Amino acid sequence: MPGRPWRAELGRLLEVVALVGLVVTQPLLDVLGRSPDFFLFHRASRADILLLVALIAIAPTLPFALLGAVSLLAGRTARAAVHTLLVGLLLAALAVQVGRHGTPLRGVPLLLVAALAGAAGAAAHRRWRAPGRVLRVVALGPAVFVGLFVFASPASAVVLPRAHAGAAGVAGPGAHPPVVMIVLDELPLVSLLGPDGRIDATRYPHFAELAQGSTWYRNATGVSGWTPYALPAMLTGRYPAEPYAPHYAQYPDNLFTALGGLYEIKAEESITRLCPPSRCEQPASPEQGLGVLVRESGKLLRQVTAPVDSRIDPENSYRELTRAEAGLDAAEPVPADPKFRWDTLDDNQPARFTSFLAGLRPSSRPTLHFLHLLMPHSPWVYLPSGAHYAAPDDLPSDGAGWVDLARQRHLAQLGYTDRLIGETLRTLRASGLYDKALVLVTADHGVSFRRDWQGRGMDAINHAADQVAWVPMFVKEPGQRAARVDDRNWEHVDLLPTIADHAHIRIPWRMDGRSARQAPRERADKRFYDRPGQPVTITGGVPSPPATPIPDPLVGTRVGERAAGGTAKVANLAAFRAVDPAHGELPALVWGTVPAAVPDGTMLAVAVNGTVAAVVPVVPPDRGGRRFAALLPDDRLFTAGANRLDVYRVGADGALRRLALS
Question: What is the spatial distance between Cα 275 and Cα 257, in angstroms, rounded to a whole number?
Answer without folding.
Answer: 7
